[in-house]
Queue: 2 jobs
Job 1
Amino acid sequence: MNFDTIIADLAEQGWSLQERFLPETLTRALAEECRQREQRGDLAPAGVGRAEQLAVRESIRGDRIQWLEPGQSAASDAYLALLDELRQALNQAFFLGLEEFECHFALYPPGAFYQTHLDRFRDDDSRTVTAVAYLNHDWQPAHGGAMRMHLADRPALDIPPLAGHLVVFLSADIPHEVLPTHSERLAVTGWFRRRAQRLV
Ligand code: OGA
Ligand code: MN
């Protein structure tokens, strides 16, 4: 795959929206897998914070998640392989030294949201680039659930979670939120990480 537009956008503005990033068959397979994981009871309320401080706070975020690990399914392996290609392209373009990609399925039930935040933790700067792929076919504006990016020097930008779209941005730079969704909202949310340097 050609990642040139993502790289040019990141260099210029710190974020990129790729429409039709995922092949349709892969989008459908991932959506199906996310729903199956929910039905099996594998998704759990997402926490806020890192490791020992992890706490579930539905007033901050209401999504239910499960991490993708290699070997879970053909679809999740295909997604991990595709994003690993992007990791290598980002390293070649920006010398970021991204060592890994971690990602989880995220299901927002109706009424859920995620308040404005940065994806980089105060005490761990390893998350460098965020990549979110959306899995929602037939999404309507009335469903809400947009990802709102708070950009410097311009009005906030709302990105609807449309099937096959990928949004990529610099984790430390762009505050963002998920507006309340009125319909079940599915995504694979992930981060390219470089080796952590302890800040505190
Ligand atoms: C996150 C997040 C955005 C989205 O999980 O950190 O900001 O659009 N997700 O799901
Ligand atoms: Mn985020």
Job 2
Amino acid sequence: MKARMKKVYPQTSTAFAQDDRQAASVSTDLLPLAMRLSTTLASISEAFATLDLTGGFTYFNKESERLLQRSAPELLGKKIWLEFGEAVSASVQSKLEQALTTKHHVEFEEFFVSIGKWLEMRVHPFEEGFAVYFRDISARKVAEEKIHHLAFYDILTELPNRQLLLERLERAVNDMQIAQQFGALMFIDLDNFKTLNDTFGHLKGDVLLQQVAERLTACVRQEDTVARLGGDEFVVLIQGLGLQSQVALSKAQVIASKVLSVLGEPYDLAGFEHHSTCSIGVTTFGAQPSSVSDLLKQADLAMYQSKSLGRNMACFFDPHMQTVASANAALNADLRTALQNHELVVYYQPQFDRARRMVGVEALLRWQHPQRGMVNPSDFIPAAEETGLILPIGQWVLEQACQQLAAWSLRPETAHLSIAVNVSSRQFRQPDFVDSVVAVIQNCGCRADRLKIELTESLLANNMESTIAKMNALKAMCVSLALDDFGMGYSSLSYLHRLPLTQLKIDKSFVADVCTTPNAAAISHAIIVMAQSLGLEVIAEGVETEAQWRFLADQGCGYFQGYLLCTPLPLVGLESFMRSHKE
Ligand code: C2E
Ligand code: MG
Ligand code: MG
């Protein structure tokens, strides 16, 4: 008997390991008590039962019958752990023991699988057993779960949200530190998601986000966390990457590559095939203590690094990146006030034809920083593009150029000159870009055919149709269009004939090598031939030597710009250059 009881209730403590003889006598002694209780407690609206010290039911009231869906005769004398398997679970057992040893009542919640209900149990110990009150708290539990779900999960994708991610990350950082193991945090941002949303609407965007969530979840193990931070930003938290940082890095790299390839597969957005890529930033954490907010910043920075290096790739955070980022942050803060403080200046670099006659200039932005001195555009334009500051800045450059054109148009010796203005992709993509160019030209009273807009190949990476439409609208106004840094980007040559371009600009990196590297020579030659076949002008930028000039001129390049001929100059310098350059 003792053996049998041990078998059913293997973890029975001394408090429960009553001698069966004693248990039996308690049980029979309790019988009259149970009968008295049954009369006095019949009116109680709460579900109430008594158990003897061995867990056998000695009393079971009407409400208990209703709640536990069992009749009293069925249960009396039966052990609770045999009738309700869940009641022998470790938590229930330890609560009963606790009540017995402390001689105090205990309250706890337990899910009764057999009846599918959450019950709150209040157990009062007395000498011969326990008085147990049951209360159905299922409705509260469902509500709690719903609230929990709303608070910790993203509604659209059902993924954990930022809040839950932060909690899990905090725990993961601690766990990995204790286990001396490495984990990784991965920031994933979809490339050009905004374009999809703007072009095809939010419903299609939502479908894409849901599919991305499913694919990401399938990429990682169940114990890893895939969260959505909002918008098109996802985070993957991976733990247990091993004890060595190098190994952890390479494992994280493998996962990142997998994510890149899985998210790069075509999507079916309700019958329409869509292609998307993502940029990933990865940071690792391990034995050294690290703060959750630092890790998030690091992964975010690394992700931005991926974006700036051309997207569709994964970058790892390292301390050097942090240093660069801090310096950039300071510069960005200053850039916000640069325009109001009149610290921006337009320089002009002359452009020449084959006869070395000056035909126009390119407007190149400079920042006269009060402490740092002259800052070149490559040090602040990328950040300005990221923050959107490029919009007011680009507008200002355009206004300066058009005012200058208007001033030159009044003088016969300068009326023929054109000004090329660099327009960043973000600026060009503004829905009102064409209108704003029209407005500036009209306000300044300059000739539209003297204005040239330089675009870069990155603009052609997506949304080709709307890009072409805008280019056509500008062309219809007689504004010229040049494709800058040609040969460097990823533009599809097959589209080139569809673009209403006036000019291709051979990137200065090819020009620099044109006399020394056969490849560069071959590329510039091919660009010139292709431009001629498409009826486009070709200009070489960054011409520094006579040898480069000669080589390019011999191949048929029509226009030139570079230090050999003239450096970028402020307006005053340009005016004096023009005077001295007069043939
Ligand atoms: P970009 O449009 O390709 O401009 C040509 C760059 O080559 C200029 O650099 C110019 O100073 C430099 N350069 C000219 N001749 C030579 C040469 O002989 N040798 C070498 N090595 N370089 C030469 P900069 O002024 O630093 O401008 C860099 C880039 O910043 C520009 O490249 C353009 O993409 C961007 N940028 C400049 N101004 C603006 C602007 O107003 N708006 C926008 N969105 N971007 C601008
Ligand atoms: Mg340019
Ligand atoms: Mg260029």
